[in-house]
């Protein structure tokens, strides 16, 4: 049999054998519960309920459950809905590098495959098994993102979600190295999503379900490899027709870092602010300025935002903002809202909230610029800062400013974040009347060996 492209084989070798250490599994546990919190918080929105009522999914049969609902479907469609729920509010974990993304999107594949394999193939996984799978999925997606910028060629980051979910589904199915190589190669070949829906003038809610779609497609590739003997050894490197020539153009795909648990160990959580992550520290800075009570909104002459280069390129927007998806990816809107209200939540982006005339007044007098020091720290893998500085100039010439380099949820503020993350989870569960006693016991415990995964999962489905 021919050898596959080295990157594909490197991913396969890692996925086949990696076992995470206890500290990484505990971080994965926090990420697991945070992802569930995001799913339940999303369920209150009408558009989410419409997705959960898509007829061909709701009326299909299967053993894979959908978080917070009574829906049971096949693992592909269940992963689609689970991924949409986890991602909908832009509130789940984040990874920032040359490419960015949200590695907990892959939990959709893990949960859906868990149900399917338990019921249909009598195959069981422990809680530690699931957490180890999360560490692996985070690492595959996140390490691909470190060196490879899909956004620069107009392709969406969910392409890496698809690869990670395909690898995880393959592992859960028990596929050997050759089958896993085939699964991963197929996921690279599979059609990639354009970033059209993340940018003006086409920003839309597809960005909330794109990762669920990618996770589902990854699972599908794993199932295809079970019955097919096809192989695509040079899926990346084939001249003219391979992933590198078609998608990456001038920069071939790289995977230079040794795979381990780096991504999970350094993951970023969205603790208080459901907003695009490059704006997290801008929101915190603006809220701190508001809380200082040193000025009134009507006295502001100009707002200046100094941010990293991706913050300018991705979320600095002028002109009309059409919908929720447009607003939660606009750094000027986020800063304006926080300066006016001193807070930020999912309702801040609603059509009703956006009608406040003060928001447009502040957006019109806001200047957003790159600070090259912030950009340098952002790309430094030993620092990974996501700095923003918000300055407010008053009509009398007085200037107030606030700088925040590391967001709440960054590894350097992990201990500070823990109580907020725990409260985020508890509130999300209680809103749906879920008994949290056992769940909180697991959340707070460092002993993973005694955890009954069925006892957890049975509580999060109707």
TrEMBL record:
Residues of the MmgE/PrpD C-terminal domain: 273-431
Keywords, sorted A to Z: Lyase
Pathway(s): Organic acid metabolism; propanoate degradation
Residues in MmgE/PrpD N-terminal domain copies: 10-255
GO process annotations (BP): propionate metabolic process, methylcitrate cycle
InterPro entries: 2Me_IsoCit_deHydtase_PrpD, MmgE/PrpD_sf, MmgE/PrpD_sf_1, MmgE/PrpD_sf_2, MmgE_PrpD, MmgE_PrpD_C, MmgE_PrpD_N
GO MF annotation list: 2 iron, 2 sulfur cluster binding; 2-methylcitrate dehydratase activity
Pfam families documented for this protein: MmgE_PrpD_C (PF19305), MmgE_PrpD_N (PF03972)
Reaction catalysis annotation: (2S,3S)-2-methylcitrate = 2-methyl-cis-aconitate + H2O
Enzyme class: lyase
EC number(s) on file: 4.2.1.79
Family to which the UniProt record says this protein belongs: Belongs to the PrpD family.
Protein name: 2-methylcitrate dehydratase
Native species: SAR86 cluster bacterium
Lineage, opening ranks: Bacteria, Pseudomonadati, Pseudomonadota, Gammaproteobacteria, SAR86 cluster
């Amino acid at each position: 049999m021919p050898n596959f492209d080295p990157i594909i084989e490197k991913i396969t070798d890692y996925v086949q054998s990696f076992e995470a250490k206890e500290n990484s599994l505990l971080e994965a546990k926090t990420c697991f519960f945070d992802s569930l919190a995001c799913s339940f918080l999303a369920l209150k929105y009408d558009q989410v309920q419409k997705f959960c009522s898509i007829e061909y999914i709701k009326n299909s049969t299967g053993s894979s459950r959908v978080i917070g609902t009574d829906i049971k479907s096949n693992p592909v469609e269940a992963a689609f809905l689970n991924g949409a729920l986890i991602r909908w509010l832009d509130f789940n974990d984040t990874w920032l590098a040359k490419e960015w993304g949200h590695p907990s999107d892959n939990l959709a594949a893990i949960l859906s495959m868990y149900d399917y394999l338990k019921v249909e193939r009598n195959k069981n996984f422990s809680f530690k098994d699931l957490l180890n799978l999360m560490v692996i999925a985070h690492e595959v997606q996140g390490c691909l993102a470190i060196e490879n910028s899909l956004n620069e060629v107009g392709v969406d980051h969910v392409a890496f979600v698809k690869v990670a979910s395909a690898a995880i589904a393959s592992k859960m199915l028990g596929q050997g190295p050759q089958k896993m190589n085939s699964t991963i190669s197929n996921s690279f070949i599979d059609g990639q999503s354009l970033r059209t829906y993340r940018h003006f003038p086409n920003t839309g809610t597809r960005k909330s379900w794109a990762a669920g779609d990618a996770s589902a497609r990854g699972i599908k590739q794993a199932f295809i490899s079970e019955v097919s003997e096809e192989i695509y050894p040079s899926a990346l490197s084939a001249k003219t027709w391979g992933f590198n020539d078609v998608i990456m153009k001038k920069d071939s795909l790289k995977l230079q870092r040794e795979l381990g648990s780096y991504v999970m160990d350094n993951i970023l959580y969205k603790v208080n602010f459901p907003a695009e992550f490059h704006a997290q520290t801008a929101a915190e800075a603006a809220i701190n300025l508001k809380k200082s009570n040193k000025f009134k909104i009507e006295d502001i002459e100009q707002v200046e935002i100094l941010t990293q280069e991706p913050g300018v390129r991705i979320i600095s927007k002028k002109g009309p903002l059409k919908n929720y998806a447009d607003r939660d990816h606009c750094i000027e809107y986020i800063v304006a809202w926080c300066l006016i209200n001193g807070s930020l939540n999912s309702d801040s982006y609603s059509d009703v909230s956006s009608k406040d005339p003060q928001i447009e007044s502040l957006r019109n007098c806001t200047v957003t610029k790159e600070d090259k020091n912030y950009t340098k720290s952002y790309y430094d893998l030993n620092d990974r800062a996501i700095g923003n500085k918000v300055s407010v100039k008053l009509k009398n010439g007085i200037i107030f400013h606030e700088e925040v380099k590391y967001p709440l949820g960054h590894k350097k503020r992990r201990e500070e974040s823990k109580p907020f993350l725990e409260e985020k989870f508890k509130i999300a569960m209680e809103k749906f009347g879920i008994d949290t006693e056992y769940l909180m016991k697991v959340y707070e415990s460092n002993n993973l060996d005694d955890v009954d995964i069925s006892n957890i999962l049975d509580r999060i489905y109707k």
